[in-house]
Amino acid sequence: MLTRVDQRTDRLILKLQAYTRFSEEDRAALAALGRAPVQEASPRHDLIREGDEPRTVRLILSGWACRYKTLPDGRRQIVGFFVPGDFCDLNVYILKEMDHSVGAITRVGYIQIAPDEMERVMEARPRIARALLWHELVTSAVQREWLLNVGQRTARERIAHLLVEMFVRLRVVGLTQGDACDFPITQNDIGEATGLTPVHVNRTLQELRGDGLIELAQRRLTIPDLKALMRASMFNPNYLHLDHEGRHLDAND
């Protein structure tokens, strides 16, 4: 787990700099958010549950988590994954109660940031405010893409698309190693995120392996040919907005 204060927001800064270029003062302001005590959630335990009162903004420092909804009979739909550098609902504290839950997939390290501290940073640092707005717009874009995934893509396309998306998101924050990355989500998790049964997920993963598009073993994903997997899933990265022109601006000019 990240423990040094000056390292805690490194992933967040890498992610937000895909949207705009920061000055040293901007980076220092984001680093200051990392001074909150580090909290931990055990694997398969909730950080916050539906119905709870949200009072803070949570920033994931290490591990994987998910946003999910459940039906009264216990059936669960995962509607988003969180990796290091992700906020769990940036503006959720304005609600009276949570309308979804956030659960840890692995052991998760995170910090809780007071709303007034977030607002202070956004008011004082316009570039940070703009980057955080892009962050929220991209979160909405990802939700639209997931809806398209479940509504129109085949099982093969759904799973391939999810694998590409997570690999690209991890690459942005420096958590890939060449064509590989840690991938701790289970086949049940994939099924709950794509609307497929575990049996269907298993069969589809075997097909992708058989076609040489992925290697997935011991919680590690390798994508030998990313462009080929993108074609197989009809993946268009535009919804992640990683080529936003603001990142090319020199913030010190």
Q: Could you please describe the fold and organization of this structure?
A:
This protein is an alpha+beta fold and 253 residues long. The chain contains 8 helices and 12 strands. It has helices at 10-16, 24-32, 115-124, 126-152, 155-172, 187-194, 198-210, 226-233; strands at 38-41, 46-48, 57-62, 65-70, 76-82, 87-88, 101-104, 108-113, 176-177, 180-182, 215-217, 220-222. A 4-stranded antiparallel beta sheet has the order 1-8-3-6. α6 (187-194) crosses α7 (198-210). The chain starts with 9 loop residues before the first helix and ends in a 20-residue tail after the last helix. This is Cyclic nucleotide-binding protein.
Write the layout of secondary structure elements.
Layout (H helix, E strand, L loop, with lengths): L9 H7 L7 H9 L5 E4 L4 E3 L8 E6 L2 E6 L5 E7 L4 E2 L12 E4 L3 E6 L1 H10 L1 H27 L2 H18 L3 E2 L2 E3 L4 H8 L3 H13 L4 E3 L2 E3 L3 H8 L20
Antiparallel strand pairs: 1-8, 2-7, 3-6, 3-8, 4-5, 4-7, 9-10, 10-12, 11-12
Labels describing this entry:
253 residues, alpha+beta, Jelly Rolls, Arc Repressor Mutant, subunit A, four-stranded antiparallel beta sheet, 8 helices, disordered C terminus, DNA-binding, Cyclic nucleotide-binding protein, DNA binding, DNA-binding transcription factor activity
